[in-house]
Amino acid sequence: MDAEVALTFRSQYALIFWQEGKYKHTEELLEEVLQKQKQVLGEDHPETLQTLGNLATSYSDLGEHQRAQELKSVVLEKQTQLLGDNHPHTLLTMGNLANSYWALGEHQKAKELKSVVLEKQKQFLGEDHPDTLLTMGNLANTYWALGEHQRAQELMSVVLEKRIQVLGENHPHTLYAMENLANSYSDPAEHQRAQQLWSVVPEKRKQFLGEDHPDTLLTMGNVANSYSNLGEHQWAQELMSVVLQKQKQFLSEDHPDTLLTMGNLANSYSNLGEHQRAQQLRSVVLEKRKQILGENHPHTLHAMGNLAISYLALGEHEEAKDLMGVVLEKRKQLLGEDHPDTLETMGNLASAYSNLGEHQRAQELKSVVVEKQKQFLGEDHPHTRLTIGNLANSYSALGEHQRAQELRSVVLEKRKQLLGEDHPDTLLTMGNLASSYSNLGEHQRAEEPRASVELNFPKKAV
């Protein structure tokens, strides 16, 4: 058989492995093909470069993002030299390189590169071309990572609509766009919209990819997160446990998808009050993140922040404060002072100060966070409402009951409006407001919110 034809067949076998989610087999076969193509075709032949790009993708799928980035940079340089800046293959590689930057936590570099690619693809391929839509979706994810959530969600909606029109509802790229949009519905008021999308995607994944395919497992993990968002933490924990075992079996314990699920399972344990189990799992995730991604990667910092929250829940407030202090400084440095993740860490550090009795420091930090969240997220965002409520708690601890009462009244009205009168968060705020009225000596006014709380959570008979 002709050597070139034989290499083409082996490349096709590698593609079959990739489609089945067998990324290690894909990597091994592509490395073999690449060496032979270099000998038979030469290093700059289009098919050699295509294999080089595919091998980089397999590295990404295995979580080896640094190796992927280095290989994609080589491919991009050669394609730019041989094909030009505006060739579709060059633009595709440029987009793939941007994805590697994103995976390595270099979100600003990813955004800049994806923006260039998108404009060129619109110009040379058209707005509805699959490659253009792929870049548009990736740029939306980058906006989200940079805290530009409104821009991200708007772009995700455009991508989904166009993919349904161009590719149909069952195409893998359409399903991927559905998942991204569903994940962007983080506000409790949007959880129902997220559930509608999650009711469609998993069955289609199972149907077209199989139950154990990595994309199917990732989708099932996202479904479990949606259960958590709806307060169904037991269901979420059970589903995540199943997904985690399958990912360990089919992907490995150190794969990014496996570590993501492990962290989410820890969150479910935390939501169920099993803080010791959550802390143990989060410790494992953090160590693996440090080993694989380094101490300054956003995913590592996220894992570090979650472990600090476990320490907080377990009453280890000094450890929580120290760890959150480290996370805050790194996030300020890497993301900026106004990024949502930085503000969330600042709020968590303030909680640690409160638990240590350092109420003045807690109040000062919470005041900063509230003002920034109002500016960048809006007054009605769940994170803003949560921080305002926490700030009220600090005022109460400092004996400033009038200011606490005023803030709690604002939070209560917004929660009634956005969540409803019977939502647990609304009832919690009612109870806190009743305490404020009592602290101010307004016992009659305290009775109304207290009665509402007791009506929804009646005391057990003794």
Automatic annotation (TrEMBL):
Basic and acidic residues bias spans: 442-451
Region span, Disordered: 441-462
Signal peptide: none
InterPro entries given in the database record: NLR-like, TPR-like_helical_dom_sf
Name of the protein: Kinesin light chain
Species for this entry: Mycena metata
Upper classification of the organism: Eukaryota, Fungi, Dikarya, Basidiomycota, Agaricomycotina
